[in-house]
């Protein structure tokens, strides 16, 4: 699959690993992919993000991702679902942080800290599924290569924090698809 | 937050999707809380055996899941 990745798509994959490394995390997750996508310049994805006004709001998007991480990786929709049961997630977070320190609930399983020097960082299941999805999306559009725009679409096609944070910044699958391919298209993944 | 209020209101309509989503969210939250508590217990010098007993699982299960933290 990787042999079909364009230079930009490869740069996103390696950039995601660099973001994980800088954050001291032992695994590469979907939010690292999004951060790496926002770093690109002169690529198809950066063109689409620019057209939707998202690249100027990079900091705001990064903050949104950080907030979700502090929530233990639970999405806004999940927080809402818990609220429906009368469970106030932000209250739980603040109590846990009072006892265990700020960011205690941040996704941190599998002993990632302390082993941060691992040379090769594995991708999470979600990140792997995103890469696979990008292949299907490219195929759906009859594109020969997998570009960073397909990675962006794949992130938007899957439920999770990146898609949610992007939606809060008016970046959705349909809007990106329209910017890139003209006419609106129903779920190409 | 208008959307959140919406969701809560629809929960009253017994949409199974809302209830199921809440269950998944609870599971994920419980997992995160467990990790935090196990880490805290270890920092206070608890043995894997003691932690396992409190969680009602085997020592091996806890150790396998959290060793290296």
From TrEMBL, chain A:
PROSITE patterns: CLP_R. Residues 2-187 form the Clp R domain. The keyword Repeat applies. InterPro entries: Clp_N_dom_sf, Clp_R_N. Keywords: Repeat. Coiled coil: none annotated. This is Peptidase. It comes from Streptomyces sulfonofaciens. It comes from the Bacteria.
Automatic annotation (TrEMBL), chain B:
InterPro entries: RNA_pol_sigma_r3/r4-like. Pfam families: HTH_23. SUPFAM superfamilies: Sigma3 and sigma4 domains of RNA polymerase sigma factors. This is HTH domain-containing protein.
